[in-house]
Amino acid sequence: MSGHRGLKVLVALIVTLPATVESGPNRAPLTVVPSILAGDFANLESEAHRCEDAGCEWLHLDICDGVYVPESLTLGPQAVAALAARTHLKLDCHLAVMNPSRWVEIFAKAGAARFTFQWETLSTTRSERTGLAMDLAEQVGRTGMRCGVCIARETPTEDVARLLESGLVDLVDILAVNPGFGGQPFDERTVEKVKQVAARHPALPFICVDGGVTSETAPACVDAGANFLVAGTAVFAAAKDLAAAVRELQRLDPDHCISSVETEEASEAEAEANGA
Question: Is 159 a catalytic residue?
Answer without folding.
Answer: no
